[in-house]
Amino acid sequence: MAKRSAPEINTGSMADIAFLLLVFFLVTTTMEQDTGIQRKLPEKQPENITPPEVKRRNVFIVLVNRNDELLVNGEPGDINLLKDRVKEFILNPQNDANLPEKTPTAIEGLGTYDVSKGVISLQNDRLTSFEKYMAVQDVLTRAFNELRNELASAKFGKTFDELQTLAKTNAEFEKKAEAIKKAIPISISEAEPKQTQSR
Amino acid sequence: MSRFKKKGEKTLPGISTSSLPDIVFMLLFFFMVTTKMKEVTLKVVVRKPDATQATKLENKSLISNVYIGKPLPRYQSQYGDQPLLQLDDAFAKPKDIVPWVLQEIEKTAEFERSKRTVSLKVDREVKMGIVTDVKEQLREANALKINYSARKAAILE
After folding, report:
1. Disulfide check for B153: which of A64, A125, B8, B50 has CB 3.0–4.6 Å away?
2. Around A38, how many Cα atoms within 13 Å sit in the side-chain half-sphere?
3. pLDDT digits (tens, 9 = 90+) for B24-47
4. Interface predicted TM-score (ipTM) of this complex, two decimals
5. Is B69 among the domain residues?
6. B142 contact A CB<8A
């Protein structure tokens, strides 16, 4: 019998098959990244412990009620003016007796800095809409970020955002960013909602 | 000179396509490795709110998602049209969060457990009541790092 060589497999369509698979994975791939506002919840307190007294001057109360209206320190407030009020509250440039106290703290890389004792207390009703709540959270975050940017520009000649971007590759900038974070901590307290009486 | 002249007319040689499958396979493997199939099928409607200060969350594997929103129309006959909580693939109650968090922590490598973040993906029209219940349960479970998921926006209208 004559020897028959096995016929070679045609690989011409290999590329087509691979392309088909490639397109499938291209379509199903999701590269989207989650974005949002990060917060740290307070730790659960044992029930028999009374929370420490905080001086009235050190608290800035922002209440969003069930009609999505703003009450700032007991008075109706405007969300557009909130940012500047928060910045003034934290900075207390004139050392006003009604605005929060400061504690001079030695911070590595910054020297002694007057860290504000002020706390923003964000309160909401169970019927507040999430959208409004986030809008207020956003304004508060912006106030803190702007303060950090201003301090970083004054001390290091770079904004805090730039420092954070550079910190990913450079340990020196990371230290600077950490120092700014210590000087202006994001002190926003999210309390359990006030049970506001129905009118 | 005529000695080296080729017979017949000159034609441009065709580009060899024999390495094409290799190139395509390389791309294919790249996408196969980087692809992560969608982990959950959403049963609730989540339209994220906008925020100018939204920042990127790093390390996807350390994020657990909690979805809060109205059930999709096809589930409304069974579950009603009030906002509900979804954990993994099923509807849940706020009290289910504590065991769920423990289970999520179990999945994380020990040295990364402190970095685990819970991302709250909440529809913009949801009322804060259910969000607050969830936050309380997260405190109970000692999962304190949270993220309010929002779309990055240049300005807020």
Report:
1. B50
2. 14
3. 888 888 887 877 666 678 889 999
4. 0.76
5. yes
6. yes
